[in-house]
Amino acid sequence: MKKLSEYVVLAFVFSWTVAAVYRFLGGRVDDPAFVAVAVVYMFGPLVSVSVVQIRRGERVAPAVGARISLSPWLVVAWLTPAVVALLAVAFAVAHPDGGLVTSAATVVESYGPSFSAERAASMTRRLRGVPLSFVVGSILVTGLIAGATVNAVAAFGEEAGWRGLMLYELSDESFWHASALIGLTWGVWHIPLVVQGYNYPSAPVVGIFAMVAFTLLATPPLNYVRLKAGTIVAPSTFHGTVNATASVSVVAVGGVSRLVTGAGVAAMAGLATVNVVMVVYDRRKGEGVTSSRLSESLDV
């Protein structure tokens, strides 16, 4: 448990310092440089795991579950986020104020303060006359490609800690208890970005609680594919694809805030659905992954 505590402290110090310095220098979430800063922030867990392992004279790769696997669960991890994105659209449309956007040119309005006035005007001009279905389809296709490649690499920076070292250190815990601890820690770790307007630009304070709820719901499926595939590549792909396809509901649904679309309650409802399907599948297969200790399923 000492190793786990050291890892968590280092991960928070590294990432929160990156966010604080960026903010101190006047950086904003709508600045082009934010993407690069966010990637550096995401690598805080990997850096922290590396420091913890190296100072103990232990290897880094085994601690994060970095191994080759050709498991079909890699495909499940890759495609499930796209299903969540489409479910989020359905749940967002079901909101009393929600409705499908009829023109691709109006999707920019859904992003609110995430875009500067100049960028918003430029995007609106380029999208005029483009079918919304084309935009949504493009996001899904490019999101799936990015999710399994560049986004997966960036997500590995986080997953090395949350579904890597932290999962191993909690191997004596039950699946759900470990998921709750990881999900809560992961959500709180996002606070410096959320308060700057990341994911929930119109509600940075309420967004903190929304992000924690989102990570709590996302963690069980991420843990499950990690355990089933036997490699950190699975949750990295899942995480990267979630990040790449989350904007589908933002683009497709109007009349509601980002607390509903994106990483909002609609996506949370989609993740809750995935959790239910996961438990039903696990019970029908009789494998007991979700009803046992992590050590019974984890490659320790």
Automatic annotation (TrEMBL):
Keyword Transferase: no
Example GO BP: CAAX-box protein maturation
Keywords attached to this entry: Hydrolase, Membrane, Metalloprotease, Protease, Transmembrane, Transmembrane helix
Matching InterPro entries: MCP_transmembrane (IPR018108), MmRce1-like (IPR042150), Rce1/LyrA-like_dom (IPR003675)
Membrane-spanning segments: 7-26, 32-52, 73-94, 132-154, 175-195, 201-220, 232-253, 259-281
A GO molecular-function descriptor: endopeptidase activity
PANTHER family per UniProt: PROTEASE (PTHR35797:SF1), PROTEASE-RELATED (PTHR35797)
Protein name (database record): CPBP family intramembrane metalloprotease
